[in-house]
Amino acid sequence: MGSISLPSPQTTFLQTLLRHQLLPSAKPSLDSISLIGRTAVITGGSTGIGLACAKLLLSLQLPHLIIAARSSEKGTKAASDLGELYPKAEVEFWCLDLNSYESVRLFARKCASLSSLDIAILNAGIMKNQFHANVSTGHEETFQVNYLSTALLAILLIPVLKSNSRHGPGRLTIVSSVAAVTTDFPEKDFVPIIPRFDRQDNWSSAVAKQRYDVTKLLLLMLLFKLSCVVKAEDVIINAVDPGFTLGTNLFCDIPLALKVSMWPLAKLMATSPEKGAWTYVDACILRGAESHGSFLSDWQVNAYVSNSKMNRAIMPVSSADHTSFHPIMYTPEGESVMDRLWEETINELKCDEFEKSG
User: Fold this and answer.
1) pLDDT at 4
2) Which of 98-112, 215-229, 267-281 has the lowest mean pLDDT?
3) Rounded to 5 degrees, what are φ and ψ at 283?
4) What's the CA gap between 333 and 331, in Å, rounded?
5) Using CA atoms, how far apart are residues 150 and 179, in angstroms rounded to an integer?
6) Distance separating alpha carbons of residues 69 and 79, to the nearest angstrom
7) pLDDT value of residue 198
């Protein structure tokens, strides 16, 4: 992998949040979009932005939707309710537990059995206020769900989307966050890097929030690596930031006092799950090959531009007014971190065959 040139704009999380929430770019129209004949899957589709996205996809005439969620009760109810709203569509619930590699692999095998799969939106994510180690893997739970299991699912779905999409390249959209581009990343200095995420040292609400932000950064690093080994003509892979959104379960685990203190700001600045869902559809439907390997935020495509002579990727100067990627991803140190993380991830997930095939 070559390095990425041109540094990311140095902005704080608050500056970026204020710009995106209070002075957003104009959102694109979906009036001309029809999803007739396509099949889509969305993880975390039983509540929040995932459920709103499911409704939006069905309103665009999607005939077959698979909602993936951990809770059978919530997933079954969501699929049933959506089926009543859109009786011409086939809406299914499939159980997916991102705390379990076995569940992820089983889910991917079921996807491979479909006659077609055109769109996959990896929306599921958590933020745990208390430290929890995953029983089956030993990894900290937010890291497990948001990064490791999401990475495994992405890797397993890529060949399915490549071979089973009937409407051009398959589409894989990974949900990240604008917080990923400004977060501190203390784990980057450790070798190996993955075990560092399993330490409980000085865990607090602030550390829990940083852990969430870092996992979203790791997804952007994963995105870059995947886009280097997967061609856009096979599967278009991008990431999207839905914005600061109310009506989700993401903050359900934070202390009550913190929820109360956040409420006035949230009411003033937060957007709705429906608007967040619109960003997902923009990323996985409206945007084409130009979004491959890119991070979409505030309706802007923050893309790498190939430079064949230097054999590396560069950021277009025009993106400087918008969110790009974390500054570390534009440094030799960041290149080394991404290489190490990729190698450790492939080894952890036992996906050596994917790296060779790519």
Assistant:
1) 44
2) 267-281
3) -70, -40
4) 5
5) 18
6) 11
7) 96
Dihedral sign, Cα of residue 150, residue 162, residue 65, residue 298: positive
CB 288 within 8 A of CB 294: no
Q: In 3-state terms, what secondary structure has residue 102?
A: helix
Rounded Cα–Cα distance for residues 168 and 235 (Å)? 9
Q: How far is CA 266 from the centre of its chain?
A: 22
- Identity at 162, one-letter amino acid code: K
CATH number of 4-24+34-357: 3.40.50.720
Instruction: Supply 264's token pair.
Output: 């006035």
Closest of 41, 10, 205 to residue 116, by C-alpha: 41
Give CA separation, 81 vs 54, 78, 96, 197, 300, in Å: 11, 5, 19, 39, 33
| Residue-wise DSSP of 218-255 | HHHHHHHHHHHHS-TTTEEEEEE---SBSSSSTTTTS-
Q: What is the pTM (predicted TM-score) of this model?
A: 0.88
Q: How confident is the model at residue 15 (pLDDT cuts 50, 70, 90)?
A: low
Alpha helix (H) ranges present in the chain?
13-22, 48-59, 72-85, 101-112, 141-143, 150-164, 205-229, 256-269, 273-281, 332-349, 352-357
Distance from C-alpha of 156 to C-alpha of 144, rounded to nearest angstrom: 16
Sign of the C-alpha dihedral computed for residues 266, 302, 335 and 154 taken in this order: positive
Residue positions annotated with a catalytic role: 212, 216
Q: For residue 46, name the pLDDT band (cuts at 50, 70, 90).
A: very high
Q: In this model, does residue 36 exceed pLDDT 50?
A: yes
